[in-house]
Amino acid sequence: MTGTTIAAVRGRRVWDSRGRPTVEADIVLANGARGRAIAPAGASTGSGEAVDRRDGGPAFGGLDVTGAVAAVSGEIAGALKGRDALDQAGIDGALIALDGSGNLGRLGGNAVVATSMAVLHAAAAASGKPLWRHLAGDRNVRIPLPEIQIFGGGAHAAGRVDVQDFMVMCPAADSFCEALDWTAEIYRAAGALMKSAGKLQGVADEGGFWPAFSSNEEALDTLVRAIEAAGFRPGDEVAISLDIAASEFGRNGVYKLALDERELDSAGMIALLGRWLDNYPIVSIEDPLAEDDAEGFVAFTAAHGGRCQVIGDDYLVTNAGRVAAAARDKALNAVLIKPNQSGTVTGTRAALDAGKAAGFGTIVSARSGETEDVTIAHLAVGWDSGQFKVGSFSRSERMAKWNECLRIEEELGTEAVFAGWSALPAGARRGRGR
Ligand code: PGA
Ligand code: ZN
Q1: pLDDT (tens digit, 9 = 90+) per residue, 202-230?
Q2: pTM for the whole thing?
Q3: Is CB count within 10 Å lower at the N or C end of the chain?
Q4: Sheet bearing 21-29, strands edge to edge
Q5: What pLDDT score does 432 carry?
């Protein structure tokens, strides 16, 4: 037994930003070091994700997690006690083997990811370093370029607009701190524009303004006006990033745009997004096609990957094998990295490494159901992902992550390097002077 041997593992039910139950895990090591992490939860989930364990039944709409919590304190604790917390890969492999289902659904993806991240925190605590530094070691890391939601639609706003995230990126800012300053002004300007148009109706699940628009284009127009109203040059200083989350409204090659009352095939979707790329300063598009439309992804990337970042979320589900295959097929040029899609820290890291090996943009991301847990801010910096997606610029489960990056940037002092334009794939930077 060493100081970093796991002495205790405990699960607990806590609550997420949608008021739903979720799993928290606590780890205590023999030397007294502690780690804690909370599982997030998605709403627009990919079918290949690790599967959360929910109780079903009448309580909390079937979403209770007493089974998953009991798995942490019971079976998982039994398997992990006595193991060395520094052996993250060994522990994550043991959790996958113990689950045995292939998708973590037996123990629960929520139980496993909370435990895996708590082990990581305990190991960092034992080293006496902040988590990001524990992960970075001696390597130079960048503070990531944030993409921050201004309007939230899709599954996060009862389908009020088809597109899920209308976001801004501030790659011309000099620092993470300045990128947040700019975003704050744009978020405020967008709110003022909504108010004066009589369309201010509160916020969606990730804190972006509720999208009371009559078309997807109206949202894009309003976003450009907000950027200008805040005093920034759209495209040069502040760019637009979209998460289409097309799996939510597309299946078998048919895309039903409810708001525009249009039904498009895959080629029609690609043409529509091409027009948006022509008309608006968009540098990044996530899940432009549905997860079942592999040919569509290849066609979209062939047509537009030379001028914009093409991110796979539901399509890649933070899976290293899928990332490598997508790179081979030229289906994308960037990957979203969500720890709870993979289920373990090791699997998450492998997906990110596969993305980097392919020359992809890599974006560590939150879920729409979040908490005060800021682990992903440390992963984004410590693993040098270059980009970071957390939702909007309101609600404390979002702000907690942005604020944690501010603290890390401050701690790095003159060593801090903001990723800025360097985080985007070459095509997305082209013609923009970087
Ligand atoms: P989710 O969506 O967390 O609701 O799945 C976030 C995203 O699509 O990026
Ligand atoms: Zn997404």
Answers
A1: 999 999 999 999 999 999 999 999 999 99
A2: 0.98
A3: N
A4: 6-15, 21-29, 34-38
A5: 66
Pocket of ligand 1, beta carbon within 6 A? 42-45, 155, 164, 243, 245, 313, 365, 367-368
- Residue nearest atom 1 of ligand 1, based on CA coordinates: 42
**Please, are residues 263 and 164 in contact by the beta-carbon 8 Å criterion?**
no
3-state SS class at 312? strand
Residues that are catalytic: 206, 338
- 363 Cα to the center of ligand 2, angstroms: 11
Q: Are 409 and 143 in contact (CB under 8 A)?
A: yes
22-36, 356-370, 413-427, range with the lowest pLDDT = 413-427
Nearest atom within ligand 1 for CA of residue 156: 4
Burial 290-315 (b: 16+ CB within 10 A, else e): bbebeebbbbbbebbbebbbbbbbbb
Nearest ligand 1 atom to the CA of 367 is 3
